[in-house]
Amino acid sequence: MKEIYEVNQEKEKAIIATFIKKGEDREVAFEHLKELRLLVETAGADIVDEMFQELIKPNVATLFGKGKVEELKNLISDNDAKMVVFDNELSSVQVRNLANELQVKVLDRSGIILDIFANNARTLEAQLQVELAQNQYLLTRLSKMWTHLSKQYGGIGTKGPGETQIETDRRIIRHRIIALKDKLKVIDTQNYEQRKSRGAFPRFALVGYTNSGKSTLMNSITNAGVYVENKLFATLSTIVRNFNLPSGKKALISDTVGFIRKLPHHLVASFRSTLAEARESDIFLIVIDVADKNFRDQIQVVIETLTDLNIAEKPIIYVFNKIDQLEYFEQIKQIELEYPNSVFISAERSINIMQLLEKMENIFDKLNKSIKLFFPYTKMQMINKVYEISKIINRDDADDGIYIEVSCQRDMEEKIKKTYADFIVH
């Protein structure tokens, strides 16, 4: 009988650091550094110390000044650290110079986020999207430093293209980027066909800051059994489930990848196809961790990301989650004044979930109108246009013709009634 031995892999020791430009808000910078700590811990490292420097402008070659780099070098030696992660975006020159000077791995915020995404990409689509983002990231930083790093280091920040494309040149990486985009287009087309086949059910999309409780809320609404873990970016692939609104009407809800401050632009671009599900929804549910003192900043990050994706114009319900963690419930009244279209819940404890569902249905009903039409078979050619300008809820092919029930935005209601006045069933 084979004996099983448990292997405890030692965590990489890391130091986190940030550059603060003189005049900038220190408190905000330290809040970002705190978030970087959570990112690095999510990636699997053990943070042994942190450092910052405040200057009028960053050092072009090493970000920090010469004395601070020397101080960082001593800190690395004292703690036996193997990696330094900067909250700032580093140029390829800065990464190379710092790596040569410090003799450890040097990553920036984008690099650590990409590493987390690489670890959590479980579906083919997510893996392709992450590889695309990694190649785009690598393309801007291609230099001899990658060969240097590959010979000495493994672990965090060296997955994917960081290992497999070290000796490649920009031309080969660009070809790989094109190939990945082509594969994602095929998947996007397949996903589009799946979305079309779902019919005209009301669609809701959960969006929000990472770790705000979106997946927990989805489980509470649908009993979907979606993977939940107290880590950033625990799930990457969009998950769609059906559920019933209070009236009994069937609806669809999707859970999307979480957002975060300074989310790399190429990463957002890579995940556009995953976020297509959100783009085609009727209403956004922005899920917010109300117990987080920085929730207002997090809401702004979500709104800005949706704006970048050109999908910020949809109706929004602000879902303030984790109210069971609030110290003073008087805070809710103030937040309601700031965000009128809001609901306060605890997804984990299923508090006020029915209130949320009622608001979801009421807003959808206000936005959409149901109209019943009848077309005799001699007027079949008119049906195609109906499909183009509205959603078909129900279709019944009877002996005398076709009965159709459509759902349309209220601004289209008058147009449909005018165009098909003779075919409306009263």
Q: Your description of this structure?
A:
The chain has 426 residues and is of the alpha/beta class. It has helices at 26-43, 66-79, 92-102, 109-120, 124-139, 145-152, 161-164, 170-196, 214-222, 265-270, 276-279, 295-308, 331-338, 353-367, 383-389, 410-419, and strands at residues 13-21, 46-55, 83-86, 105-108, 203-208, 239-244, 250-255, 283-289, 316-321, 342-344, 368-376, 391-397, 401-409. β3 (83-86), α3 and β4 (105-108) form a beta-alpha-beta unit. α5 (124-139) runs antiparallel to α8. The longest helix has 27 residues, at 170-196. The N and C termini lie far apart (77 Å). The relative contact order is 0.08.
Structural class estimated from helices and strands: alpha/beta
Q: How many structurally independent domains? A: 3
Given the C-alpha coordinates, what overall shape results? elongated
Strand content: 15-25%
Q: How would you characterize the largest beta sheet?
A: 6 strands, mixed
Kindly provide the radius of gyration, computed on alpha-carbon positions and rounded to a whole number of angstroms: 26 Å
Q: Identify the CATH class of the largest domain.
A: Alpha Beta
The percent range for helix content is: 40-55%
H-E order: EHEHEHEHHHHHEHEEHHEHEHEHEHEEH
Describe the strand arrangement of the main beta sheet, using strand numbers.
Answer: 6-7-5-8-9-10
The CATH architecture category of the largest domain equals: 3-Layer(aba) Sandwich
Count all strands and give the number.
13
**What's the CATH H-level homologous superfamily of the largest domain?**
GTPase HflX, N-terminal domain
Task: Kindly report how far apart the N and C termini lie.
Answer: 77 Å
Number of helices: 16
Can you tell me the CATH topology of the largest domain?
Rossmann fold
* Residue-averaged pLDDT: 83
- Low-confidence stretches at least 5 residues in length (pLDDT < 50)? 1-7, 144-153
